[in-house]
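Subject: design request, 252 residues
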């Protein structure tokens, strides 16, 4: 049964919503009657996701690393749907490369997409949320911000920034009724992680051996945490980082 668009309870934006964790988050929202706008660069993938999700889902093509596109994107969404209740900053890029081989340009490219674009999009969405005195912003971090992982220096810097920004944003915005929280996924079974781990048995064994639960998580596990932050169940929760990692961040 596809959810009825007339029963939509909240308007939510999910960046990178056409695949991986973003897809699972958007699916959870749609199944709970959130009018969900998925944003990404690949129109074919977005179309396919929208077809799967049904009429409660809309997609918008936007390369968030082109910062000039962001104000127009947000004003279009606000004009079409009247408000924005939830923003999930999920879109991000990674690069696996030895530290000394990472160029300034490569480092900046990851910071631009994973940090600057998150800031710019959040700022524009907050302007829409402020008159309503309510809203929930959920950032997506990573185990890379919890401990050192080799060969991902730029990604690690970006996700550490996201956790710091989550706390700073929460202090600035919570007095206005806008909550800001962060989910830090551990090792989740997605196409992206499968490529990385299946080609590197040593890394995969290390991941599993330091995860007390002994297996990878599922995208739905992350979606459940994001959904919690987006709902009234978390109305007194702000500025937090929730690891969804099978105990990986405390594993030995």
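Subject: RE: design request

Done. Sequence follows.
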């Amino acid at each position: 049964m596809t959810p009825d668009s007339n029963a939509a309870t909240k308007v939510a934006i999910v960046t990178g919503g056409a695949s991986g964790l973003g897809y699972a988050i958007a699916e959870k929202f749609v199944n709970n009657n959130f009018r969900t706008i998925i944003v990404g660069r690949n129109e074919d993938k977005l179309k396919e996701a929208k077809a799967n999700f049904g009429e409660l889902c809309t997609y918008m093509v936007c390369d968030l690393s082109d910062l000039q596109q962001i104000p127009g994107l947000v004003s279009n969404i606000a004009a079409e749907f009247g408000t924005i209740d939830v923003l999930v900053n999920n879109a991000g890029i990674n690069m696996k490369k030895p530290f000394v081989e990472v160029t300034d340009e490569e480092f900046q490219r990851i910071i631009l997409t994973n940090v600057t674009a998150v800031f710019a999009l959040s700022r524009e969405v907050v302007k829409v949320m402020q008159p309503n005195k309510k809203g929930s912003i959920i950032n997506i971090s990573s185990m890379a911000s919890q401990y050192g992982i080799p060969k991902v220096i730029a990604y690690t810097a970006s996700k550490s920034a996201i956790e710091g920004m989550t706390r700073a944003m929460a202090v600035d915005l919570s007095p206005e009724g806008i909550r800001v929280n962060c989910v830090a996924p551990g090792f989740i079974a997605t196409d992206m992680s499968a490529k990385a781990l299946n080609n590197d048995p040593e890394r995969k064994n290390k991941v599993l051996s330091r995860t007390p639960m002994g297996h990878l998580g599922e995208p739905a596990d992350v979606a459940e945490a994001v959904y919690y932050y987006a709902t009234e169940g978390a109305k007194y929760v702000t500025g937090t980082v929730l690891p969804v990692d099978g105990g990986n961040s405390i594993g030995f």
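The chain is about 45% helix and 15% strand.
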